[in-house]
Amino acid sequence: MLVRNSPLIKRISAIALVIACLTSILSWELIANAWMQYNKAQDNITQFSDFYQVLNVSNKLAEERGFANQLIFSSGNNRQAARAAFHKSQNLTDQALKKIPDEILSSTMLQNTLSYLLRGRAEVEEYVAGPKDDASGAQIAVDAMMEATEYFHNILFIRTESFIKMEPSALGAILQGQALGGLRNSTGKLGSYFLYYLNTGLPLTEPQLEKISKEWAKIEIQWWLLGAQTDEVKDSAKFRELMLKTRHNFQNKGASLVRMLQTQSENRELYSIGVEEFSIRFQNSLSSFNDLLQMYLSDVHRYYSNEKKSALYHLVMTLITLFLVYALALVAVIYIHSGVVKPLMKINLRVKSMGVDEEELPHQTQICEIKALETTLNKLEEHIDEKRMLSDELKLLAEKDALTGVLNRRGFEMKAQHLLEQEDSEAPAWLILLDIDHFKHINDTWGHPVGDKVLASLGKALQQIALADWIVARVGGEEFAIMFRMADKQDVLRYAWLLQMTCKNLRVAADNGVEIRFTASFGIARTYHCGLPAMMSEADKALYRSKKAGRDRISGFDEQT
To answer: Are strands 429-436 and 479-485 parallel, antiparallel or unpaired?
Structure first.
């Protein structure tokens, strides 16, 4: 039949089939993406609930250590109250340990934790039951409880690394939660360092003063992390208020007490406070840390619950939108059939009745047919393009981008060489290379003056968060270097994350008032007795891996041993 053999009708059928296939592929992609976002939000809620259980045990152990110190150095009527508080704290720790899921804390880790903890408790009870004039026995009990809390705190860091690998986008929230646990542990350790010397009246030794200095540095970094603006708690005014209250309470009560005793020790003066009073007053200065942890968890849980609701809403709207797209496509097919195919069928039948083959149709008639079909197909293509653009807008993320006041490359190389000469195995040198993502786009879109403002703002921010002996330099067009010595690998990761959050939170106003935001990629390298060129090469390779992995990443940390 002539209609079936029409090349034009075959072309229409092929185009309709292609459109149907493309629409189906797009539909499944959008639905799969929406479903993935919904499941991701649900997984984040579960993971943070599990992570909180580990963090809660760390806090309970630090609290129990504080009550153990009070009991060890209690006397007279205070001993009974101190013993009751110590036993109550033990029960709370045991209950928190039971709540940790098996997949989070292995049976081996649990048994080791209990072994350290039971030994520490036994040492405390043994000392309290015996004569109270043995200063070395008191220190053994203090150290045993310290060992138990330190073992579990190291487990917390291990779990933190595993959580980060499972969900890299939650790095900020995880490290901020860990900073809470780290603050409670570090502040408690800071007080414990003074107990033996208050008990014996001896001045602090040089090694002990070094330990105290390192603990102060950790505490400052942890306060930095806790005060960073993460998405999970950035809108929580109550959390900010309680955090400031907690810090104010510690600074005015605990920290001031520690600094006073440290000054008296350095001046070889008699301590103005006894060990029993110190343990009680210092413990009271840490009283609101648990409330801060509870509020943090509540804010994080609320954030991810809202993320889950938003993902569900996006899924439903995607399904509704696709339903409308299919409905409109059906209408378009009907329109094509009635407006194009039927007229062509009539033309073909008329031609057949006249005894004329399709090949013999006047050239003008074929042109009219093609024009009519082209107009219809163009309208259909415009409609599909509009829907595709609407769907793509749901998936696009705006990425915006950072003159300096920091060292240039020559100044950096000179100071870096001096720093490398001072490094040792206890405090190796670390190098972080930072490169602004899509900086060319900033210059091309808003002009080079605005790009210079971005660089200036980032340079100023980097100077503000760097410690006094750290090296901050601009070593390339949009590339910066931060170099320092640090003993604790965990603190290096925290500082790298703080740099990442600083870049994300910076805002630079263009001439037309538009706010420019940007991200940065990072590469980390560590060295010991290694030249600067080799160190720069390692950091640059890690930076390249961050760029290749999608930008806004931190690379090179896991390779450092």
So the answer is: antiparallel
